[in-house]
Write a structure and sequence with these properties.
Blueprint: H1 8-14, H2 55-68, E1 72-76, H3 79-90, E2 96-100, H4 105-114, E3 121-125, H5 130-136, E4 141-147, H6 159-169, E5 172-176, H7 181-184, E6 194-198, E7 212-216, H8 218-231, H9 237-248, H10 250-268, E8 274-278, H11 288-294, E9 301-306, H12 309-319, E10 324-325, E11 335-337, H13 349-354, E12 361-365, H14 371-382
Parallel strand pairs: 2-3, 2-4, 4-5, 5-6, 10-11
Antiparallel strand pairs: 1-7, 6-7, 8-9, 9-12, 11-12
């Protein structure tokens, strides 16, 4: 008899459930140990937390693989660590990486400043223009990287044409799916080879952990694991235990983020003091039809452009009482940041404006609060305009 495929929430809570022995702890124990005893004379792999095989580390990797539909997954000490190791697993000196130009500033800096030192050349293209991918490819191109939805404009990239091109050319397609989480989007189902996350964000969901994750084939994830051991990117066992806890509520949290995000975005779209709202759930968004087709929900990330630029934005921010002015995203509480001072601080004002991120742009990570309370807070802050 064929085994029934478990739903997303069941997988998030139980992974691959098995019968429990009597007196088993329902909540998983924390193995806060750097090392473990080994059998004398054994040639089996040493158990050592830097190797990523502490039980807490192993369990969350298996759980994420089940959520993403991957062969395997592992967690690293940060999202940037996950991104770096995922690329180093498939690229060698002399290789060329083709990347979307709409990516997190920290990753752009990694590609621009560090990969060249390793002999890896990187070029950037507009990810919405399908012909540019093909035109920008070289004989040495080995991988393609993109982020969807993007930071901070919430653009949704159609993966399937890019994946078809990568398959035809024998290239690895690596996708950062942090903003969506496995609840709203699973890139491997759309042709990606590797998916990466800043697990600091939605996967953990409680703003108390720094972590990253990589999911894909056994072969590539094993190479990521080898690099993780060499580069010292293993996750602390307590952080792994906290992520285990966070993953159990991931589906219910993300569905609430979807609900709050849409309600607040629809209200913002009606406000005269806001010149533009970036949210894929709105018909005004350039990727709305694609988002409806490929996403399980529109998410909790919202971009706002206030009339009046920086001064208007600062007045608005100082008047907010619920949203915290802080970087990062994906937690249970609402956070707001200014890309000009965080993710895109390395760009000039002109470069940011050209990228569609003018001064006065605010990025909200909407939390799990009552949408009416967030709307009331926004309303009183806009009234200070």
């Amino acid at each position: 008899m064929k085994r029934r495929r478990l739903g997303l929430s069941t997988r998030a809570i139980h992974g691959d459930p098995k019968a429990r022995a009597d007196w088993t702890a329902v909540a998983p124990p924390l193995y806060q140990s750097s090392t473990f005893t080994n059998p004398v004379g054994s040639t089996a792999e040493v158990l050592y937390s830097r190797y990523g095989n502490n039980p807490n580390q192993v369990d969350i990797g298996k759980r994420l693989a089940l959520l993403e539909g991957a062969d395997a997954a592992l967690f690293t000490a940060s999202g940037m660590g996950a991104c770096a190791l995922a690329h180093l697993a498939v690229l060698r000196p002399g290789d060329h990486l083709l990347a979307s130009e709409w990516i997190y500033g920290g990753v752009h800096r990694l590609f621009r400043e560090e990969f060249g030192k390793l002999g890896i050349d990187v070029s950037f293209v507009n990810p919405t223009q399908q012909r540019t991918w093909k035109r920008a490819m070289r004989k040495t191109t080995r991988a393609v990287f993109l982020e969807t939805p993007t930071n901070p404009l919430m653009r949704v990239i159609d993966l399937e044409p890019v994946a078809t091109l990568c398959k035809a050319e024998g290239l690895a397609l690596i996708v950062d799916s942090t903003f969506a989480s496995p609840v709203n989007f699973r890139p491997l189902e759309h042709g990606a080879d590797l998916v990466i996350h800043s697990a600091t964000k939605y996967i953990n969901g409680h703003t108390d952990v720094i972590a990253g994750a990589v999911a894909g084939t056994d072969q590539v994830v094993e190479e990521v694991r080898r690099l993780m051991q060499v580069w010292g990117q293993a996750l602390d066992p307590f952080a792994a235990w906290l992520i285990d806890r966070g993953m159990r509520t991931l589906p219910v949290r993300v569905r609430r983020h979807n609900e709050v995000g849409l309600a607040v975005a629809e209200w913002c779209a009606k406000q005269d003091a806001i010149s533009k709202v970036h949210y894929p759930g709105l018909p005004s968004h350039p990727d709305h039809e694609l988002a409806k087709r490929v996403l399980g929900g529109f998410g909790g990330m919202l971009g706002l452009e206030l009339k009046g630029g920086v001064r208007a934005a600062e007045r608005f921010l100082k008047a907010l009482t619920i949203a915290a002015h802080a970087p990062s995203l994906g937690g249970v509480e609402t956070l707001v940041s200014e890309p000009r001072l965080t993710s895109h601080a390395s760009l000039t004002a002109e470069q940011r404006a050209q990228a569609g991120i003018p001064d006065g742009f605010l990025r909200f990570s909407l939390g799990l609060e009552d949408p009416d309370d967030l709307i009331a807070d926004f309303a009183q802050a806009l009234a200070r305009h």
